[in-house]
Design a protein that fits this description.
7 strands; alpha+beta
Length: 321
């Protein structure tokens, strides 16, 4: 016996129905418009399309497809809301970081290298019509600004040395000379200042919490030629100063200043006390800046750190340059 298969689109007749004819009758042409409710013609081998779905009545359960669509819509809304919240939190965090200092952001803090926290350094205003000391190729090197305003300010957290304030900010020559170790040196330097007619001496000093003591002296002469001669021929040599400061009997040239720390128009002579140190280590530097000479001195019990000394010398050079 052979197995019978049912063609696509046809329905198998009931068991008690007579067998379907081998060939389907030819479709009859339509004689006109169909009456309402009349089933449409179908091509042989294809089932008639299902009738349109009736809308659900009030109180009936919605179709499964509609319920699924609403669940998808609710999920989309939830994810959209979550995305908006995360974006707002991310934006606020980014704004917070931009408002923070670099050292306040974890992982971005700069390791402390020993530099002091100086306030913003600005040059004092010049009198009306007065040029800067080194303005133009033929600058005279004369500082027109108030000498007291050219002193480097103390770093934050330091205690001021009131003994260097003098009268109205002008330091007596005797106080300046007291820092030299030997009496003969104090007398020799005093004669130099008299012979070269020093006009003013201004000074500032402070002590930082680590015990480092800083003193800065500015000496102004009549002309840049006089100031430069006093430094180069009377006070400083290449490898050692001509007159020893108190506590620094033996010194050597400080070779640890970076090359890029040089300040234009400023000649620097920097020294550090040689080992073995005494009760404290002393560092000193003479700066030749036109008609003005600066002497920067730092000392600390045990040893004086080099980084803040070089930082202080460079900043003072920039104020004079």
């Amino acid at each position: 016996m052979t197995e019978q298969t049912t063609p696509v689109g046809e329905t198998r007749p009931a068991p008690d129905a007579p067998p379907a004819p081998d060939t389907a009758p030819a479709p009859q042409p339509s004689s006109g418009p169909r009456a309402p409710g009349h089933a449409p013609d179908t091509a042989p081998g294809f089932a008639a399309p299902p009738p349109p779905a009736e809308p659900p009545l009030v109180g009936e359960e919605p179709p499964v497809k509609a319920r699924k669509g609403r669940r998808v819509l609710r999920a989309v809304l939830r994810w959209t809301a979550a995305t908006v919240v995360f974006a707002a939190v991310g934006a606020s965090a980014a704004y917070g970081i931009t408002r923070m200092e670099r050292t306040d952001v974890p992982g971005l803090a700069t390791r402390d290298d020993g530099r002091w926290d100086y306030p913003a350094i600005t040059k004092p205003p010049l009198p009306s019509g007065s040029p800067a000391p080194f303005a133009g190729p033929g600058g005279s090197g004369a500082h027109s600004a108030d000498l007291r305003a050219l002193l480097l300010p103390a770093p934050r957290g330091a205690t001021a040395d009131t003994g260097l304030r003098g009268d109205d900010g002008w330091l007596p020559t005797k106080t300046f000379l007291s820092q030299f170790a030997e009496k003969t040196d104090r007398e020799a330097v005093g004669r130099l200042l008299t012979d070269y007619a020093v006009r003013h001496i201004a000074a500032r000093g402070w002590t930082t919490p680590d015990g480092t003591r800083t003193r800065i002296y500015l000496l102004r002469f009549d002309t840049a030629a006089v100031g430069e001669e006093v430094v180069s021929t009377e006070l400083a040599n290449y490898d050692t100063p001509r007159f020893a400061l108190d506590g620094a009997a033996a010194t050597e040239r400080d070779e640890h200043f970076p090359a890029e720390s040089e300040v234009e128009n400023i000649t620097r002579y920097a020294y550090t006390e040689s080992r073995p140190y005494g009760r404290e280590q002393v560092r000193e530097a003479y700066l030749s800046a036109g008609d003005t000479i600066a002497l920067v001195v730092q000392s600390r019990r045990g040893s004086a750190p080099g980084v803040p000394f070089r930082q202080t010398v460079v900043l003072q050079s920039q104020l004079l340059g």
